[in-house]
Amino acid sequence: MQDQKPKKDTVLIWFDDGSYTYIHLGICYALSKIAEVNFVGIATTKQDMGFLKTQKFIKFEKLFYYPDCYQEKISYSLANLKKFEKEYDLDIWLNIFMDRFFYKFYTHFHHFKKEEILPIVENSVKFFVDIFKEYDPKLVLLQSAGENFADFLLYKLAKKMNVKISMTNIIHLHNKIVISDNLISREISKEYEKIISNQKNINDEFNKNLIKNQSAFETIKIQSNFNFNNSNIFDKIKHYTKRFFYEPETIYQNKGKSKSKMLQFRYQNYFEIKKRNKFLNKNSSKFIKNEKFFYFPLQTEPEAKPSVTAPFFIDQLNLIENIARSMPVDFLLYVKEHPMQKLKFWRSVQDYQRIINIPNVKLIHPSIYSQDLISKSQGVMATSGSTAFEALFFEKPVFLFADDYYDVVSMVNRVHDISKLPKIIKNTLENFRFKNDELNAIIQATKNISIPIRYSDIMNNAIILSSIQRNKSKSKNVIKYFEKFFRDYETDFELLAKTIDKKM
């Protein structure tokens, strides 16, 4: 009798809308060249589903269209949902609130009610669990979870069902990522603990020159110039003509959208953005005075990372007020708008006015260089982002309101209870000591664990690919552009694939 061939491992791929579809396809194409695996894919839009069915780069054992599981489902069982919470260690409402379409942010066209949300959640849990049970994947590949409730749910279920996870986590150095199985790249924290316990493992000395050359601000500069629509004028006209004659895809993110409502929204928003920008330019400071201040960099809203790493500090304006209440009397709080917020239509005038009205708070213009603010401050307060990480290079104390891989450093105060912030600030100002060995250790750990790839350029070109897919009707055009995309970044995809293969 002939020996049976060993069963291939299965990789489950989450193809989220837009750029992630093409990045994940590139990773899997490279993985298929070095490993014998079966691929099971989950697409979130018909646009991507059509492309994935047509392409020949990888062969899918099965390709699912995620919205099938919840469309036209209107009933739900609280008993089932309660059972899911217990069996799979879920916090369903916490999961729901982090989705920007269900609450607070992308609600221009529809405000979801509980009776609309819970059927989507219940059927999504069933859908993912059934896939895990039927295909028994060895590994799940997805972007850093939290872009929506579904990918976060998939992440949580994979954790509970002991399925390995590979996420492409961006870290706080330009064009460095970590292939991680957790939301905050704790692999770096663990490596730091090993290094700090044995100083002989530190090979280099690091200072502020490194962060000036590899600052995440370089990533922001590239992102601010991302080309979200690379089509010519003819393709754009054709695209918007098609959108006018066809209703949006019936996924929950499009609930309430209609042709007339979208046109009206675009028209109104055009003037609203101009008003917000004018107010910000007029009422924010473009100077750093010689005074005592803490620096709070606003995060863009909506933003995925804070919603999963700091869900109870997600209201930044409320947090700013609480920080202002907690500071010594001779301090100010400098609050700087994020330069990338312009891509999300700036904040409302009411939000900016609320910041300005706080007597010991000063609103800072987004054009002010962040590292200048760090260097002149007495410390940095942050919910997430790279500014607090960069503060370590300027020997400044950090007050962090979210988990992050560098919170193991003693110079970082991880604030869990806001009522204790006044005492934490007072103790830090009296007792703070910069520890160069800890800075060296956390950067050495970051270098050891992270992967250097051209991530910003890859993301930009993936966004262009997504635009081509939206605006061109023939799939062969998208395939042609994907082939070039893969060739241009083949070495990067190979490095990612090899790293993932080692984790399987």
Strand % is: 5-15%
Proportion of helical residues: 40-55%
> Uncertain spans, ≥5 residues at pLDDT below 50?
none
**Molecular shape:** globular
Number of domains: 2
Kindly report the average pLDDT value. Answer: 89
Tell me what the CATH architecture of the largest domain is. 3-Layer(aba) Sandwich
**Largest sheet geometry:** 7 strands, mixed
Structural class: alpha/beta
Q: Please give the alpha-carbon distance between the first and last residues.
A: 30 Å
Q: What is the CATH topology classification name of the largest domain? A: Rossmann fold
Q: What is the class of the largest domain in the CATH system?
A: Alpha Beta
Major sheet strand order: 3-2-1-4-5-6-13
Describe this structure in words.
- This protein has about 500 residues and is an alpha/beta fold.
- It folds into two domains: about 10-170 and about 455-504, 3-Layer(aba) Sandwich (Rossmann fold); about 185-215 and about 285-450, Glycogen Phosphorylase B (Rossmann fold).
- About 50% of the residues lie in helices and about 10% in strands.
- It has helices at about 20-30, 45-55, 80-85, 90-95, 115-135, 150-160, 185-195, 210-215, 215-225, 235-245, 260-285, 305-310, 315-325, 350-355, 370-375, 385-390, 420-430, 435-450, 455-470, 475-490, 490-504; strands spanning about 10-15, 35-45, 60-65, 140-145, 165-170, 175-180, 295, 330-335, 360-365, 380, 400, 410-415, 450.
- The chain has a seven-stranded mixed beta sheet, with helices on both faces. The protein has a three-stranded parallel beta sheet with strand order 7-8-9, with helices on both faces.
- The protein is globular and about 65 Å long.
- The model has no long low-confidence stretch (mean pLDDT about 90).
